[in-house]
Amino acid sequence: MRLLLTKAASALMLVVFPCAMMAGEIGPMVLPSGAVSINSDRIAMPTAVFAGDRIHTTNSSASLILAGGSVQVSPNSSIVYSPGTVTLDDGTMRVVTSSGVGGHVLNLAVHTASSGTVRYELRRSESQVSVAALEGKLVINDGHDQIRLDAGHAVMMAVQGNADGDAPTCKEGDKKCEAAMKKCKKKDKKDDDACKRAAAGGAAIGGAGAGAAAQLSTAAIVGIAVATAAGVAASAGIAGLNTPPASPVQ
C-alpha cells in the first residue's frame, strides 16, 4: 500500500510541479527516489535547484522537473543544472522537453531541432559518449563540427584526452559566463569543475589541454528502434563501432 501511495504521489507531483512552474509559482525541482544528493548534501524530499547545482545519484534515481520539460537521472549518474540546459557529468540522463531544453556532455552541445515534444538521452562512461534521439530531431556540436540526428538514431564517440585536465574557462569577452563562473565556489573539486563546465556552456574551453573531449569527426551513427533506444549502450554499442563516421551538417 505504501508503495502504491508513493507512486501515486510521485505521479501527481510530475503533473503539479510543471504546471506551477509554468505559472511562475516555483522554480526547478528535484524529486528524489532513494539516495540522491545536491552538491553533496543528501535530500529526501522534493528540493529546489539553482544554476550550478550538481545532482548525484548512487543506486537510486531522480527527476529534475523543469518548465516545459523534465530530466530523468539514472542510477550512478551526475548532472549539473543551468537555466535552459543540463550538463551530464557522468552516467545517463534522459530529457523530455517541449521548450528546447538543451544538453551538454564533455564538449558536446545538444540542441533540439524540431517543434513539439523532443526526447533524447545522453550517456557518458570513462571511454565512450553517446547521444540518442528518441523523439524529434537534434543538432549536436563539438565546437568544431556539427551534425543533425533524426529520431530513432544514436551517435557514439570514444572519449579522448584526460578527464582531469585543466578547469574550463570562458571565451574572451563572455560576461555572462564570467559572472556564472564567479558563483562556482564548490568545496569539492569535481563539483566546482562541473559547475564551471555548465557556466562555460558545457565545454572545457581553453585549448588542447582542457580535459576529456569527444570528436564528431570520428563518431558513428547507429539506427535504432525508438522502443529500444534506452538500451543504446547494450543493444547498439558494439555494432555501432563498425559503422561509418557521421556526416557533418552542410
Largest sheet: 17 strands, mixed
Q: How many alpha or pi helices?
A: 4
Structural class: alpha+beta
- Helix-strand string: HEEEEEEEEEEEEEEEEHHEH
- Percent helix, as a range, is 10-25%
Note the overall shape. Answer: globular
How many domain regions? 1
Unreliable stretches covering 5 or more consecutive residues: 1-24, 202-210, 226-250
Rounded mean pLDDT score? 76
Radius of gyration: 18 Å
Based on DSSP secondary structure assignment, what is the total number of beta strands?
A: 17
Query: Termini separation (Å)?
Result: 56 Å
Please render the helix and strand layout as text.
Blueprint: H1 2-22, E1 29-33, E2 36-38, E3 41-43, E4 47-48, E5 54-57, E6 61-66, E7 69-73, E8 78-82, E9 85-97, E10 102-105, E11 108-112, E12 118-124, E13 128-135, E14 138-141, E15 146-149, E16 153-158, H2 175-182, H3 189-199, E17 220-223, H4 232-240
Parallel strand pairs: 9-10
Antiparallel strand pairs: 1-4, 1-6, 2-3, 2-5, 5-8, 6-7, 7-9, 8-9, 9-12, 10-11, 11-14, 12-13, 13-16, 14-15, 16-17
